[in-house]
UniProtKB/TrEMBL annotation, chains A, B:
GO BP, one annotated term: isoprenoid biosynthetic process
Protein name per UniProt: Thiolase domain-containing protein
Keywords in alphabetical order: Isoprene biosynthesis
PANTHER family: ACETYL-COA C-ACETYLTRANSFERASE, ACETYL-COA C-ACYLTRANSFERASE
Domain Thiolase N-terminal intervals: 6-226
Domain Thiolase C-terminal: 243-386
Organism per entry: Natronosalvus hydrolyticus
Gene3D superfamilies cross-referenced by the UniProt entry: 3.40.47.10
Top-rank taxon, per record: Archaea
MF terms in GO: acyltransferase activity, transferring groups other than amino-acyl groups
């Protein structure tokens, strides 16, 4: 089996972009190709993550269209959709193809616009997002994703005594990290008081517990060990990927706070990488809501079950802490252009493993983990990257 | 490298289905599992093709939802969208994973509803389909897919003298085949006169040149050679898959009638299977419009360029002819539930290779080919299956 490496990375700023999806993605993709030091002719296949441009922009069959725009027409193209885990799923398949020797060098990326640049206002976009909940059993209740994660988090508060202040501490941490990231949508600090004063969106989440709607794109070039050895930029090895699902709808979950698909995916990824959670130096996790980060760091084994809320308050997961989580600002402050999020996590982590993360750098990081979740916490992809320090 | 086999097949009738996507797919999937003689516990991964349920039914993150409905929650799930080539793309990735030894047994299928059961009327659904044309360069012109393939076919008529009567002969042939297929949406004969008397949809296509809007699902179980040897049902080997793209939009194509992605995909598939077009005993091709079948059989090398129209008139591509094309009735008569179409082609061909195709049986068929096309003729997947006769 070949060893897959990330050999080039690129991403746009996350925020508001008027440019069409093709051009938005091209900006990230050309940066990734330039970073790798390869031209488009080297790319043998294109893996695209895009969750909802059919619904939000009337734009489908997007992978070949983007490939054509990039000058890659001819290569096999595939679009993945798995709600918020969309581009991590594309990444997994790209890595598996390289591992199997089916391709030597491939392009993987994600793109999405979720702001009013699509022509949709926030209530309409909220409905588009909600299409990822169960069509028969959940959508008719009017629930949307703040409500889905609100239910999971409310149960965590009931079981473990997690507090609104602890939730707010996650937002404060990630906003703080975001101030160090030029690409982040929110570059401003917040405070526990400001979070707790913000309006309720869905119990227990207030506005500042929720990630924003964002436009953006991210791309990575994945190659085998031989190609990676010849590349100009530092490469990082993809040493483990786990991918698991959980029952849908929420009402059928055995344990609402376990996010079982994350535990299963993490187990697979740790085993493949031959490491444990204690070996991870830096992580990007799926903090679509503050409560989601708390569930994630427990599922990943960074803290004991029930200790996730305290971790944010005590600085365990802050830059400089025992296990820095979401140094990019996370979905909460960096932004969450759905189909781009999974790859953007990998861009951030690659920069840490290369020692190129600037003010956000986790010094000496050699092992990094990305956790990307979709739907009713029902899909999770966990990827582990390894660098040379 | 392992040898991938199709070890079980199932599909619903194509037509109008009131049942939700989960249940519609389950019907096909359980038939495929039963046919293979395996239970759900054997399935290691689930590959779903679904082109547009986000737009048409407000239903996304569908792969894990369907997996959960089937009792498969836990396994990695992925949804593919590549316009009308959607489920062939899913099939390719399933086969590659089995070939690489990443999985031993997987479930692959497609499901879609395109009729008024979705709540959308024909004009709205036509717009949903049109999202697969170029968002900036084509959609603003008002073109939809009858127009896209009408342009390609008009050029073929100009270059090769193809006539409306020849187009009609494709419809007559495929309707005739459809009368032998209980699962077909249209089980009635038509005539050249009836086709030519039907109203114009987009020059040169009349209503009877166009495939219908359909609901349906299809599924196959794919396994490696060891598992296949232990299965109850006859298995067929997947000996070649080609997958290529072409430039988008149409205006940038070098040759409008070549459907270059089909030629490239066919070349790859023939090379992998170590056969040529003369070795193919039966084929299912993407006849979304009568003209599309003519372009397809030329691109696949079944007839010389420019001879596709004559082939239908002369019976070359009819059951009993030199190379029977679309014995199922094709998209034209069997129906075209977008995301299910690619897998349904493989179900039909598997039945021929097993000698189980009933009145439609191509006697002694050992090599079968599926051609599934998406978007502006810009994605094509060609799959070659081999059986024991």
């Amino acid at each position: 089996m070949h060893q897959a490496h990330i050999v080039g990375v690129g991403m746009t700023d996350f925020g508001v972009h008027e440019t069409p999806l093709t051009e938005l993605f091209a900006s990230a993709a050309f940066d990734a190709l330039d970073d790798a030091g390869v031209g488009g002719a080297a790319i043998e296949s294109f893996y695209l993550g895009n969750a909802m441009s059919g619904q939000s922009e009337g734009d489908t069959h997007l992978a070949p269209t983007i490939a054509s725009h990039l000058g890659l027409a001819g290569v096999p193209c595939q679009r993945y959709e798995d709600a918020c885990a969309t581009s991590s799923n594309a990444f997994k398949h790209a890595v598996r193809a390289v591992e199997a020797g089916q391709h030597d060098v491939v392009l993987v990326g994600g793109v999405e616009r979720c702001t009013t640049t699509t022509g949709l206002e926030t209530p309409e976009m909220t409905s588009v997002f909600a299409s990822a909940s169960h069509r028969q059993y959940e959508q008719p209740t009017g629930i949307s994703f703040p409500g889905v994660f609100g239910l999971l988090t409310t149960r965590h508060m009931h079981e473990h005594g997690t507090t609104e202040e602890q939730l707010a501490a996650v937002a404060v941490k990630n906003h703080g990290h975001g101030t160090l990231n030029d690409r982040a949508q929110f570059g401003t600090e917040t405070s526990v008081e400001e979070v707790l004063d913000s309006p309720i969106v869905a119990t227990p989440f207030r506005l500042f517990d929720c990630c924003p709607f964002s436009d953006g794109a991210a791309a990575v070039v994945v190659a085998n060990e031989d190609v990676a050895a010849d590349m100009e930029a530092d490469s990082v090895a993809v040493t483990g990927i786990g991918h698991a699902t959980d029952v849908v709808p929420l009402a059928e979950k055995e344990d609402l706070t376990a996010t079982q698909s994350a535990r299963d995916a993490a187990t697979q990824a740790y085993e493949a990488a031959d490491i444990g959670p204690e070996d991870v130096d830096v992580a990007e996790v799926h903090d679509c809501f503050t409560g989601a980060e708390i569930l994630a760091i427990e599922a990943l084994g960074f803290v004991e079950d029930g200790e996730g809320g305290k971790a944010a308050v005590e600085g365990t997961t802050a830059l400089g802490g025992r296990i820095p989580v979401n140094p990019s600002g996370g979905l909460k402050a960096k932004g969450h252009p759905i189909g781009a999020t999974g790859i953007a996590q990998l861009v951030e982590l690659t920069e840490h493993l290369r020692g190129e993360a600037g003010e956000r750098q986790v010094d000496g990081a050699t092992h990094a983990l990305a956790h990307n979740l979709g739907g009713d916490a029902a899909t999770t992809v966990v990827s582990i990257l390894e660098g040379d320090a």
